Amino acid sequence: MASWLGRLSLGDAWYHMSSRLLRTKPVGAMAHDANDLTDMAEGSAVGLAKVLTTVDLVSLGVGSCVGTGMYVVAGLVAKAMAGPGVILSFIIAAVASVLSGVCYAEFGVRVPKTTGSAYTYSYVTVGEFVAFFIGWNLILEYLIGTAAGASALSSMFDSLANHSISNYMITHLGTLRGLGKGEDTYPDLLALFIALLVTVIIALGVRNSVGFNNVLNVVNLVVWVFMIIAGLFFITARNWEGGRFLPYGWSGVMQGAATCFYAFIGFDIIATTGEEAKNPNTSIPYAITASLVTCLTAYVSVSVILTLMVPYNLIDGSAPLMEMFADHGFVWGKYVVAMGSIAGLTVSLLGSLFPMPRVIYAMARDGLLFRFLSHVSALTHTPAVACVVSGTLAAILALLVSLRDLIEMMSIGTLLAYTLVSVCILLLRYQPDEQTDTHQYGDDVDGLKHQDVGASDTKDDQMLIDGADGDGSSSYHTGGNQGEGDDSQFHTGHASLLKRLLGGHYYTLRMRLGMPDASARPTPTTGRTVTRCTLLLFLMSFLLWSTIIFGVEQGSGVGAAFSGITAALMAGSMAKLMITILQQPESPRRLPYMAPCVPFVPAAAILVNTYLMLKLSPLTWIRFTIWCIIGLLIYTCYGIWNSTLELNAREQQAHASSYQRYDDHLDDTFSPDDDLYPQDQDDRPYQGRWTTRVFNANSDEIKDPQVRIMTPI
User: Which residue ranges does the record assign to the Cationic amino acid transporter C-terminal domain (predicted)?
Assistant: First the structure.
């Protein structure tokens, strides 16, 4: 008996812990108007300013991408990883970014008028622990991006000064051994000063920051056009001949793509500004799409000119675009590009630093980070404390770590955050809406019975990982519009495209795959099925690419053959998981923007992102692991106990435990039935703990929403 009680208490402890990790934030607390002061963070008297237009968002996205990506990353990847194949690296990275970008855009529309980007979206939809993990990695992304931008600006000024700045620092300050990959680096005081200066600009206010950003983007655009036109007079096809286009092979191209992904991370800055955008429902999707298309065009065109003007092995790693004109004696062109470099790298630095304090602010407002970080300045309407803390940390990082190591470190956190966003979209599309009465579909889907679908008080239905949302506090659905009719093209997402491609064979394919018809609706059971399949797909994508990269590509003989067979079996299993997901009904809920071809686009994003993550260096994974361990310590020691949801739960528990007798607040005329209180029960009042159950007005159990029944725990 004692051992049974021990197992029971252990199970209850695990259930309560998992409930904490998977609790979601009610969307009503997120979608308040920017002028509403009722849901501000502790210590804040004002909210963020709602001033950003679609053009402002596009400018922020393009600026944060094109600067460092165009002026630094293209040269680094071409010289050390891919050669002229950097063009293909950028295209592959762009495909991965587009796949993640459409998922980001749908997330932004599902939970508009919020700050915090994917952190906030995941908190509302999939749970607290996943939200903290995504937010923590977004902080890493922006922190390293800011430090990389400051370091790139410092390198550009050093190049303009014929490396006299770096020589002076090495002579008077010495070198530091062991940072990055162990090479000698010098303390970059100029990068430290640049990062602190931009921190001050960001803290002065969003309107000033965005106006400054727009001016720099215009300068950057003019210089970009100049580089393309002027570069046409110096290009030579010899730099691509004789195997020089892919000197490092396709492995180098893919490794370069993993690093080039850094150059496309700017679009998620758009998703962090939902609370400051005037019309986030339309601005966020349009701005993300326009930013990605513009950035891809800029990177490919510049990479073509760079590799046709200078042999890949002679490219200058610190300032490639300036030095490519100097190598041909066009000194005037070098200084024009220098102007663009200053503008582009500054706007990229602004784009990296701008969202970081907003993510910190959102996490601190929710209690997952220290709450003093959520203070909003009454003068500038910006999260001033978060700005100062984040800018100072980025400045210290720029002082100590080399630019190449910063870029590699940044990509892994970004890739993981984007992968988790794609996982969340797959989960959300197949979960039942709260407004949908799943009881009426209980007899039609998978042979479910009325009582199986309607049981809304079970543990499985209270957590997304085990099923659908179980209570109103976990709902994200109230933030959108519910569709009325049964539109199969809408609610399958890919139906319209498949109909055009397959014609009359479309319905035959649907029947053979077992796809549901337009009248089917998701239930808690189908939601759990998709959740399990999606999590397995996520884990198996890592196993599949690990087997291919480390077993097939790097193996030989029998080992490589065995790895190939294993990879083929895993690919077949993943295809079966996709078919299982296709067989489940989607939510009919309409949104202003929805990711196309679900579940294929999110699944493709997961596969591409995990492959690029595994192509990064082992040292990058070690750094990333250390960062994640630090985050876990903060969450387990502080966040899980001080989050707003935890404090609210304690308050409700204390309120419930205040009931000492079950009949304190019951109407004397109320007569409980025999099932609740058997006749042979002892007449003595229950001396243990009691809690209150409030039955919903739509519940089949009790129609009167005011009735409260006291039940023992």
Answer: 593-643
Query: What is the rounded distance in angstroms from the CA atom of residue 17 to the CA atom of residue 197?
Result: 44
According to the model, what pLDDT value does residue 342 have?
87
For residue 298, what are the contacts with CB-CB under 8 A and spacing of at least 6?
A: 66, 69, 70, 224
DSSP 357: H
Whole-number Å distance between alpha carbons of 472 and 461 = 12
More confident residue, 317 or 38: 317
> With contact defined as beta carbons under 8 Å apart, do 388 and 146 qualify?
no
Question: What is the rounded distance in angstroms from the CA atom of residue 579 to the CA atom of residue 600?
Answer: 10
In three-state secondary structure terms, 663 is: coil
pLDDT, mean over the chain: 75
**Strand partners of residue 108:** none
CB 198 within 8 A of CB 150: yes
Beta bridge partners of 693: 709
Tell me which residue of 295, 258, 281 sits closest to 59, measured CA to CA. 295
Q: How far apart are CA 383 and CA 141, in angstroms?
A: 19
The reply to whether 83 falls in a domain is: yes
- What would the pLDDT profile of 31-57 be if each residue is shown by its tens digit? 443 333 233 444 444 555 677 788 888
pLDDT at 242: 79
Q: How far apart are CA 75 and CA 58, in angstroms?
A: 25
Number of domains making up the chain? 1
Angle at 11 between CA 8 and CA 15, to 5 degrees: 140
Specify the pLDDT at position 710.
41
Instruction: Return the number of other C-beta atoms located less than 10 Å from residue 279's C-beta.
Output: 15
Considering 229-238, 450-459, 685-694, the range whose residues carry the highest mean pLDDT is: 229-238
Cβ atoms 64, 352 nearer than 8 A: yes
> Which residue range(s) make up the domain with 343?
49-430
Burial class (CB in 10 A: 0-12, 13-18, 19+), 283: buried
176 confidence band (pLDDT: 50, 70, 90): low
CA distance 150 to 142: 12
Domain for residue 322, yes or no?
yes
Burial of 539 (0-12, 13-18, 19+ CB in 10 A): exposed
Token pair 């309407």 in the structure block, residue: 381
Give the type of residue at 33.
D
Task: Identify any residues that bridge with 691 across adjacent strands, giving them in sequence order.
Answer: 711
Helices (H) and strands (E) in the chain, counts: 27, 2
Q: In this predicted model, what pLDDT tens digit does every residue of 185-205 receive, in sequence order?
A: 778 889 999 999 888 888 876
Q: Residue 185 phi/psi, 5° resolution?
A: -130, 160
Decide if 136 is inside a domain: yes
Q: In which element (H, E) is residue 693 found?
A: strand 690-694
Q: Which one-letter DSSP state was computed for residue 457?
A: S
Cβ neighbours around 446 below 10 Å, total: 17
Please check whether residue 448 lies inside any domain of the structure: no
H helix or E strand, kind and range, residue 708 = strand 708-712
CA distances from residue 581 to 35, 442, 530, 534 in whole angstroms, order as listed? 42, 19, 6, 8
What's the average model confidence in pLDDT over 67-93?
88
Cis peptide before 599 (omega within 30 of 0): yes
Q: Which among 209, 364, 351, 204 has a CA at the least distance from the CA of 271?
A: 351
Hey, which residues does 694 pair with through a beta bridge?
Answer: 708
Q: What is the DSSP letter of 410?
A: H
CATH of the domain at 260: 1.20.1740.10
